[in-house]
């Protein structure tokens, strides 16, 4: 199992734009309204912190590889190599480069109308890291940090995400 996790602040930011772009989902007039719903577990897909907490039980399982979105963005070649090795797939250098190129956010966004139809623009918005800094106030940041610590701060997944959040920022 490949478990891809992401900075919860960017998860919230991404979901905010996603829900406001998908008519079947509830939309939010303001970021503050969304943030309250996100932090009080009122999302249609549940609580991200609880999701991480549940997956943490399997973090040491040899059949589970955890990788962060941030790791893949920072070094996609290494990420693909590690994923291929985990699944026992050997890739030539040409195949490796092809996978990296074809799985890049830029190419997936470019092809999103073909691959995902009308939802392509909603699913592939920016694909960046740290976009949360454009929405979060200091209060939002403090509340998210506190919830993170309460739910997953000392766990293996929490430590992995914390490194991505604070040591590489």
TrEMBL record:
Protein name, per record: Sulfotransferase
Family indicated by similarity: Belongs to the sulfotransferase 1 family.
Its EC number(s): 2.8.2.-
Gene: Sult6b1_0
Superkingdom per UniProt: Eukaryota
Pfam families: Sulfotransfer_1
Annotated source species: Uria aalge (Common mure)
Gene3D superfamilies for the chain: P-loop containing nucleotide triphosphate hydrolases (3.40.50.300)
GO molecular function list: sulfotransferase activity
Enzyme class, UniProt record, top EC level: transferase
This protein's UniProt keywords: Transferase
Sulfotransferase domain: residues covered: 1-155
């Amino acid at each position: 199992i490949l478990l891809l996790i992401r900075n919860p602040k960017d998860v919230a930011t991404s979901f905010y734009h996603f829900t406001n772009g998908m008519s079947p989902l509830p939309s939010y007039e303001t970021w503050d309204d969304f943030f309250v719903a996100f932090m009080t577990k009122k999302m249609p897909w549940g609580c991200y912190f609880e999701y991480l907490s549940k997956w943490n039980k399997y973090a040491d399982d040899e059949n589970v590889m955890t990788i962060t979105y941030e790791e893949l963005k920072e070094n996609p070649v290494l990420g693909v190599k590690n994923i291929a090795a985990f699944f026992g797939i050997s890739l030539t250098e040409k195949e490796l480069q092809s996978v990296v190129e074809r799985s890049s956010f830029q190419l997936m966004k470019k092809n999103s109308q073909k691959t995902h139809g009308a939802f392509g623009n909603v699913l592939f918005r920016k694909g960046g890291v740290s976009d949360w800094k454009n929405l979060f106030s200091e209060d939002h940041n403090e509340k998210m940090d506190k919830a993170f610590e309460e739910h997953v701060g000392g766990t293996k997944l929490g430590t992995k995400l914390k490194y991505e959040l604070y040591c590489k920022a």
